[in-house]
């Protein structure tokens, strides 16, 4: 009988549109899961990325191998001569290779015939290097270069010749693969900090015998290092054994999948949105089939059979559509990952089963179907049987209170054990569920404070009291969705703020700052100055000279520069300038006449007030090397825009003032003003052509756009859409509940506008209550997270939260007005 009723009801209503939203949401879950999990290495790939074709390896960073000597070759010969299964690579970090927009690469030199690199690289053009001076450019560095090009070495040796281009299989970092003997033929090579670069060895073996590798390393290092330096082995045998990396260890250390590292990113929105969307679909279907179901029950069909028949109407469609959504979402996710490989995605794409999406979707669908059946029981009733018995109501109330107590207990435990920011969403969800479980009590509290002076106000309060249970369910849904939305918005804003904070501060447009890799207290390298001054406009310009205040020294305990500072400032340096005009040009901000007068009278300008403490307009200066006071000077606080050189500078003054106080002034950075964009680019090109690092000077660089995580943005959009959907459906349900009352009023001449206003106000009260509680629960959870988790700044986006509240309010008003049109023409 149930099957017959289901087929008849199915023929009377379309159901596809009603369940389009949850099906699309399932596709979104699988697309997100597939895309994110595809971009992580498998255990075997994680081992290949470090070991290549080797079975075990050890990198010894504490063995320095100088350029221009045969130290590296002698160590390689001593190691490789012990076994044909042994191989040694010579590595250099930040090798000065500046072609194709690169600012330095990872240099590796070894016998590539002896140790084929096929697990890490694939040759796209040319051949592998065999002789000294031959290199292959791999990864991002291969863009814009060709086989036969030369790599400038800034006069350190004959230029290196590119004999091949390769693609990195497991990452996209640029690398320079050199033939054996190349490091020996190079003279002194300097890194980005100006210090000579040192190579370090990596010892490898292709046999599964770590003990043999350890013995071979000790023999080679012991004999070679003793011969070179006259000392014994750099490290003990036990230390060598502890630092050997085997393939099994690296496979066990493979990074966890994204859905494993951040499981709540799918579970929270999935278990909130998917059941709610399915319930909405059932409510719509029930509304369309209510009259048919009532007619069937009037003809003797049992209520239970009618309920099951309506519940089964969309079930085949849900199952079939879910399978299509699973296949479509997974395909879209992997297609996006493969298309974005090496561009917007990771350099490797691995196909994996989206278990997280399967689990979330299964749990969400089961929960949604169960809640959908409950929603049908509330709507499809037999006359006189809508009210539950007193015993049933008591049991439901006890169960609800038990859920609230359990959620509150788990919330307290979560607060006490909270250590990571990822726990914020779990805390928000628990607090929101606790508040939602107390929905009827919240409605009772609302009724106590609602005004009842006018007829409309009394009517609104009476209708809320009459529909208390149903409105409590609506309020609970609102609370959970609003809390999740606020939480997602906060996480999104925090991620964006953190990414923006990490972005490097640029130099103002038109400036060229010679600051030795963002260390303006260092004097620029004469080779850098000579290369930059090959640009005619820069050579003609008169630079602004920076002077470091105090003698520069290094504190061995903390490894920082010690110069003149204040008793309260953090690590930083202060600068002096020849004139107020130079200081104004360096700051890029106009000085007032009061600022200039203060500088002329022996004062200073504080440009980072967070770094110092100014007492009554005075600043006490000390020698940070000795801790002795130097002088007390009058100061004014200015607030220029932060640039590349001002970030850690507490104050500035004139050079004459510093010298008058007996403080040394040492030439430091140089700044050229009003240089055109083509000439700024020409300056960096001149550095590259000379084999120098273009980062040694600062020019204006447009910050990269910050792209928020797609999963979070999509979840926020879906949650806001869900809020609007709940608002519309709840308002329409309220119109349905009041239709009989409104019909009577309109028949006696009361305007439909008044009835619509009364309906909108009811839902406005519920929305205001639940939005306030949900937002408060989320903000309180985030405040607790910010207090409990150190070194993590949560940014609460009040503007976006206000926008969400405004969207809810607007949708409530509009849906109330539109839903009131459901009154029949005879009722108007």
Question: What does the model show?
Answer:
The protein is of the alpha+beta class and 828 residues long. Helices cover 51% and strands 13% of the residues. The chain has 28 helices and 22 strands. The strands form three sheets. Strands 1, 2, 3, 4, 5, 6, 7, 8, 9 and 10 form a ten-stranded mixed sheet that branches. Helix 2 (20-37) packs antiparallel against helix 10 (264-298), helix 11 runs antiparallel to helix 13 and helix 14 runs antiparallel to helix 15. It is globular. The two termini are 41 Å apart.
Structure summarized in a few sentences:
With 828 residues, the protein is of the alpha+beta class.
Count of helix runs: 28
The Cα radius of gyration reads 36 Å
Q: Which class do the helix and strand fractions yield?
A: alpha+beta
Provide mean pLDDT, rounded. 79
Helix content: 40-55%
pLDDT under 50 segments (min length 5)?
Answer: 226-235, 382-386, 556-560, 824-828
The outline comes out as globular
Distance between the termini: 41 Å
| Beta-strand content | 5-15%
Task: Say how many strands there are.
Answer: 22
* Main sheet specs: 10 strands, mixed
